[in-house]
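hey m, so remember when u said the tokens were messed up on ur end? i reran from scratch. heres the input so u can diff it against urs
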Amino acid sequence: MKKFVILIAALGVSDRALAQGAADEGWGLTLGAGALTAPTYEGDDSYRVSILPNIQVTYGDDFFASVQEGVGYRFINEDTLRVGPIGRLKFSRGEDGDQPFAVTGEDTTDLRGLGEVDTTFELGGFVEYEIGGVTLGAEARKAVSGHDGAVLDLDVSWSGRSMAFGPPLIWSFGPRVRVVDDTYTTAYFGVTPAQSAAAGLPVYTAGGGVYSYGLGGTAILPLDDRWTLVAFASYEKLAGDAAESPLVQLRGSEDQATLGIFVSYRAF
């Protein structure tokens, strides 16, 4: 379920930005839901709309936990530097492309014969460094289940606030790049001889390298001291061996876009 993964950057920005105006101590709980339009699977050219829940738990501005953001702790948490460990959950990809939260579209037949990629738990670390209104971010993770691969996410974001709407509109946008190893690309885009016979796709050996690059933006509008509206959009282009996979070239697209809007309530 890539949809949960897509929410990481947008809702993560929301947590950090709103934390500046909230208490820095004690437990916090945020509940929300929203609509997201995204490809049915990574590399697909068909889109579905899903209604997704959002539950986030925090402790001060150091600990955070949610399905979207994963579980992490900022053991260095200064004005310009944040560093810590992180674990993320990536849901399985089945042959039917089932999306339990989808409200439009049908399950895909593109993945039949390619086998299932099991639910993955990734462990790693992150670092963020701010220079004025610019944040440089890097996050490296290694899977201990599922795809078994390694992932490196790099991003640069410009952020600020606008008072044009009354409440402070918090915005952030910038480019991002994902680099992966051979194991990751093979799990999602490789085609073995057995899979080729079952799926009707050419045999394909996928290697690692730059997996995708793109641009994303987020807008956060506090409606009052507890309710918040979050809107986000992104465009990513698959690259390297992922883009050259017959799954993408014959059945999908290198161009991947997402659009979502969420409402959240800070319970405490």
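this time it looks ok to me. The chain has one domain: 2-266. if urs says something different then somethings off w ur setup not the seq
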